[in-house]
Write a structure and sequence with these properties.
The chain has about 625 residues and is mostly helical. The protein has two domains: about 240 residues, P-loop containing nucleotide triphosphate hydrolases (Rossmann fold); about 280 residues, no CATH class. Helices cover about 55% and strands about 5% of the residues. The chain is built from 22 helices and eight strands. Strands 4-5-6-1-7-8 form a six-stranded mixed sheet, sandwiched between helices. It is elongated.
Length: about 625
């Protein structure tokens, strides 16, 4: 098992993981225990190459492991706006079951999705009972209604509470195999023992548990049936914890009676056992490596290792017999069907979560609405008294420019952090089968649309009449529709750039020239007919160009007389609306096409954004 840095994570490794056992890989930092657990769980990171086979009852099982297992990651990632109770209810109620396929059943909102961690046949009261028991058993009852929050920001849960919540999430559906990466990191000794005790109970019910731990306390260490010690990518020991002491004694390393056995093993594997040097000390480095090599070589030929190899060979022979007979290799325990309920059910669930995120951040929502109203009032007063004269032509075009830029830039930048902030959560949920990419992306878009309808409409309602723009219900409503389309198209462009980069800073850097081009090709500062031929195509991707033409048409098409306030010969005057449209190279015949193109750009940007997000998810 190697990664792109050619770092050896584990070699010569053929262990067995029986049922009814809690297995604990232990190693110094960087020795490969997390890579090992990730590879066994078929959840290795990008760039990691796993060489070898994973067999379950003699059947190839690598690709099937995620369907029958749970995985507790070293880092906890949650939606910060949910409470522990809501999160667990969501997970036990998510619409993406790994159980056997059954029919769909309509239930209440809390249970409408109850299909991810538990079987569809599980009654609603059983799902609720499961959540209640986990909250109680893992000591989460006191914080069940507190927001999860984000570490270092609006943090509500402690690191230990987050770790326990992550653990509860993975054991909701009682998986056959449970993998845990650094489960006790950040926990006090009491809660560490509590979690490992639950692991032991799971193993006692016929489950297989593999849990890597960096430096377990003596109490935690005593709860594991079997341990595995890793050194330099090799196995220094694998077997029952009681046998480890005898093995190290046979190699000349006797654990003091007052010493934590886990600390003793790590001490031996990191210093060579004499304390004279460690892996960071040049003088002791060779002694440390020689000691580890000798220990690993001794274990490789020990009776315990040979016994393990015999078991491995037995299952390997079963696998070969399947291949020789030409039979399809199957095991009922591994034939777990993954059912994907309807797209609409997934979207509804994710929309509920997005709604909670918006509702529980009222300050941001209120600030955006107040900002819109304030800008609308200011702009309306600045342009108040627009007239049908020569100065009014320029002022009206200026008002249209402000209307469009204000509802473009703010809407574009409002969504830039959506995917950089939430993509880690989605990647983990997607990997665990919680939701599909189309459902996730659709929910993000749909959840934002109401805001990008209400805000520009309110803005237009206030600013339009304060400025004294063209009267008439048709002209106002079509202007409002145009502004709403602009806001949503601009947001779609924001989604595209948000989905393309990992950080908001990179998104802003890439977005700046794009927005500059959008404005310049909108026809405000130059006639679009004068754009050089090799850049002429850019105007067709500019929502400013279509919206400017549409809104200008609404203001001037059909106007038969425009007052000329200049003295004869002082300045040329435009006498009607048709001349105004010709001045800006616009045509009233394109009015319907302009709105259609705004809708087309809205769909195009979202399609490109989805493709960019899909490619990133595929790479990761």
């Amino acid at each position: 098992m190697v990664n792109r840095r050619e770092h050896l994570a584990a070699t010569e490794f053929e262990p067995t993981f029986p049922r009814n056992a809690a297995f604990c890989p232990i190693a110094c930092s960087g020795a490969g225990k997390s890579s090992l657990v990730g590879a066994l769980a078929h959840r290795q990171g990008p760039g990691v190459i796993v060489d070898g086979r994973i067999l379950a009852n003699g059947c190839p099982a690598a690709s099937r492991i995620p369907a029958i297992s749970g995985f507790v990651y070293q880092d906890e990632i949650f939606m910060p706006s949910l409470t522990p109770r809501e999160h667990l209810t969501l997970m036990v109620s998510a619409p993406h079951s790994r159980g056997t396929s059954f029919g769909t059943r309509k239930e209440g909102r809390q249970e409408v999705d109850a299909r991810l961690k538990l079987d569809r046949r599980t009654p609603a009261y059983s799902r609720r009972s499961r959540v209640e028991h986990l909250l109680q058993d893992l000591g989460l009852r006191s914080c069940q209604e507190a927001l999860i929050g984000e570490p270092g920001a609006n943090k509500s849960l402690s690191g230990g509470e987050r770790k326990r919540l992550a653990f509860a999430t993975e054991i909701l559906r009682d998986p056959s195999v449970l993998f845990c990466d650094e489960l006790t990191t950040g926990l006090d000794s009491f809660h560490a023992c509590r979690l490992v005790g639950i692991l032991r109970d799971l193993s006692g019910r016929g489950k297989t548990v593999v849990c890597s731990i960096h430096q377990p306390s003596s109490d935690v260490f005593a709860l594991f049936d079997r341990i595995m010690l890793l050194a330099d990518g090799r196995v220094a020991f694998a077997g029952h914890a009681t046998e480890a002491l005898r093995f190290f004694e046979s190699q000349g390393y006797r654990c003091p009676s007052s010493f934590n056995p886990a600390d003793f093993y790590l001490h031996v594997l990191s210093t060579g056992g004499d304390g004279g040097g460690d892996r960071g000390d040049g003088g002791g480095d060779s002694r440390w490596r020689d000691s580890n090599r000798r220990i690993c070589d001794a274990f490789a030929v020990s009776p315990l290792a040979l016994q393990t190899m015999a078991v491995v060979q037995y299952f390997h022979n079963i696998h070969l017999s399947y291949l020789d007979s030409g039979e399809e290799v199957k095991d009922p325990a591994l034939e777990v069907k993954i059912e994907r309920p309807g797209y609409a059910a997934q979207v509804c669930l994710l929309l509920w979560r997005d709604a909670m995120d918006i509702i529980r951040n009222p300050a941001v929502l209120k600030l955006r609405l107040v900002q819109k109203l304030l800008l609308a009032v200011i702009i309306g007063f600045i342009y108040m008294g627009l007239g049908r004269n020569q100065r009014g032509i320029q002022d009206t075009e200026g008002a249209i420019f402000v209307f469009l830029t204000e509802n473009s830039f703010l809407c574009t930048y409002a969504v830039l952090q959506v995917f950089p902030r939430e993509l880690p959560v989605f990647l983990r949920e997607h990997r665990n089968g919680v939701c599909s990419l189309p459902a996730y992306y659709s929910s993000k878009v749909i959840s934002q649309i109401p805001l990008f309808v209400v805000e520009p409409f309110v803005f237009t309602l206030v600013a339009y009449f304060l400025a004294g723009m063209r009267a008439g219900a048709f002209h106002f409503l079509m202007t409002a529709v145009g502004i709403v389309l602009v806001a949503n198209t601009a947001a779609a462009a924001g989604f595209l750039f948000s989905a393309s980069f990992d950080s908001v800073s990179m998104v802003v850097i890439a977005l700046t020239p794009f927005m500059f081009t959008q404005v310049v090709t909108g026809g405000f500062f130059l006639s679009i007919e004068t754009i050089p031929w090799f850049l002429n195509w850019t105007q067709y991707l500019s929502w400013f160009r279509y919206s400017n033409e549409a809104l200008t048409t609404l203001q001037w098409h059909g106007v038969q007389h425009i007052e000329c306030e200049y003295e004869p010969g002082e300045a040329p005057c435009l006498s009607n609306g048709t001349q105004v449209l010709e001045k800006y190279s616009f045509s009233a015949c394109n009015f319907t096409l302009d709105y259609a193109m705004l809708l087309f750009l809205f769909l195009l940007f979202h399609l490109l954004a989805f493709f960019m997000l899909w490619s990133r998810v595929r790479r990761k």
